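Hi P.,

Sorry for the delay on this. The queue was packed all week, but I finally got your sequence through. Input first:
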Amino acid sequence: MGSALPLGDPAPRDGLLPESAAAGAAGRDFGVYLHVPFCRVRCGYCDFNTYTATELRGASQHDYAGQAITEVEAAGRILDASGMPAREAATVFFGGGTPTLLPADDLIRMLDSVRSTWGLAAGAEVTTEANPDSVDAAYLARLAAAGFTRVSFGMQSAVPRVLATLERTHDPEKVPLVVQWARDAGLDVSVDLIYGTPGETLADWRASLEQAIGLAPTHISAYSLIVEEGTKLARQIKRGELVPVDEDQQAEFYELADELLADAGYGWYEVSNWATDEAHRSRHNLAYWTSQDWWGVGPGAHSHVGGVRWWNVKHPSAYADRILAGDSPAAGRETLDAATREVERVLLLTRIREGIPIASLSVPGRHEVAGLIADGLIDAKAALSGSIELTRRGRLLADAVVRRLLTD
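Then the structure:
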């Protein structure tokens, strides 16, 4: 049911933000994330804040859209009262869980609440995640007609044996069909893949990549499987029932993905994300990497506005109680100091293709650039132009690059 919430300061019941959060807000984009914490079954590797029907304990999927709408409306009042300038939502993202377990009308009502509270910017990106077995053509057409622009399908693998290890329930043969339904509805399509599942071979991974490319989505994500403590998968590995993929194999999987995707015309723009062109990058996810502002709605959702970060109570029943009482659902928050914001800036910007301006680094960090070029971790041509751009090897060792750039 998700990892523990971070430690932080108590969040005020009224949700008001400190005066500092409004500084420079007019120059930052504003996005909205709506968390739908429901899944039909719990996948063995999943550490997200999600709940099956038997885990809801007093909460109801039927009531959830109304609760989320109440938080959206309260968020509008809180931002106004905190002195934030009026900003339309540049991006809206429905994540989970499986948002498309809810009726299409529920998602549309939630989107309408964002529209009526803040407005949608011209050309706003509106995305929902979906499992391939949770939608049909009519459902996707309803979303598109209501203003959704994009759908991200959790394909994960094209190999039934790998899907079984992950405990994914969809039939891989249905993926081409749902992609076509989305395209027929006028939606942009992204597919999500996971590599490094125990027992997965390089040939398995190649097959998944080739099928994903063959679907011709405009965006592909490829994430390394992280074995999280407390998950069923972690227990299976601890008992010796499954053997984890080692770091060298993970690197081979990543290198194959980057090679095949590049050959097919996809350009990387963040370590785990590729798009056909700049127009089809996930603008919502880029907002996270570039430290824009966003309000996260729902149980366990995280928000960030002007250097203030907060997170909601985790369980849907606790969330419902807060909403019904008229209190902020925030469980805790932190206000980032200048040093922490600088570390996050370097950490996040280094991982995107445009990188970070070398001149903005500390003097010791700038002194590391020549060594990083010599080690084949950053691109020499980009460095000559004044910015850090990771090479393929650098993307595999991104954390090590960041540590060197943050050298005191």
